[in-house]
Amino acid sequence: MVTFEDIKINEEINVYIRKADEILGVLGYTDHSIKHTLRVGYIASKILQELEFPEREQELSKIAAYLHDIGNIVNRSNHANTGAVLAFTVLNRIGMDPGEISIITSAIGNHDEGTGVAVSPVSAAIIIGDKTDVRRSRVRNRDFTTFDIHDRVNYSVVKSDLTIRAPEKIIALNLVIDTSICSVLDYFEIFLSRMLMCKRAAEFLGTNFELVINNIKLL
Q: Alpha-carbon distance 102 to 108, whole Å?
């Protein structure tokens, strides 16, 4: 059985993650490093754990999260589908069970808000983990005068906290943002499609998604 630890120490995979992040840095995108993949995996597995999904699905969510952005080594456009194919190639080579490969590749292929949709518990958890990783430290640009809207939105986030209230069937993203950098309306405008994707993913898991910014409930 292929474990998450096997994936973490696989140098081929780690090269792809690092190179994909370097490419996104050249293109001006926020941080997509191993720190991001680990955070997505932590959130995804925590969601499935709190909602009492099987331990193996929790582990598969960490594997899928670790691999979800490797498609960026080819191109940012269509990176979800490209990443799914790359992940299939690596996982098949190291002997992973085909059924588990299917779960992981479909989660990767469906994580982007442009074309993706929750198709399994692992997929739903990955979507929420990825789209709720909003934080100041993901902004690479250190020149505030040249920030674009995405830089400002991420940099404005002073505190980010995702909570799973299983008895109430609620997954909630609570943000504190500095409105002198970015207004609540700007945040909602830029990330509306991502938050709606989280809402649908939460519904797939039998829960509701809430977005609270500066103590104002927006979803």
A: 10
**8 Å CB contact between 72 and 23:** yes
* pTM of the predicted structure, to 2 decimals: 0.95
Pairing relationship of beta strands 157-165 and 216-217 according to DSSP bridges: unpaired
Q: Where are the domains of the chain?
A: 4-217
**With bands split at pLDDT 50, 70 and 90, how would you rate the model's confidence at 167?**
very high
**CA nearest 26: which of 65, 82, 99, 75?**
75
Give CA–CA dist 55/140, Å, rounded. Answer: 35
Q: For 56-91, what is each residue's pLDDT tens digit? A: 999 999 999 999 999 999 999 999 999 999 999 999
How buried is 22 (Cβ within 10 angstroms: 0-12 exposed, 13-18 middle, 19+ buried)? middle
**Alpha helix ranges (H) inside 51-132:** 55-67, 79-93, 98-109, 121-131
Q: Name the β-bridge partners of 212.
A: 174, 217
Answer whether 78's CB lies under 8 Å from 121's CB.
no
Q: pLDDT confidence of 5, banded at 50, 70, 90?
A: very high
Q: Which CATH class is domain 4-217?
A: mainly alpha
Q: H helices then E strands: how many in the chain? A: 9, 4
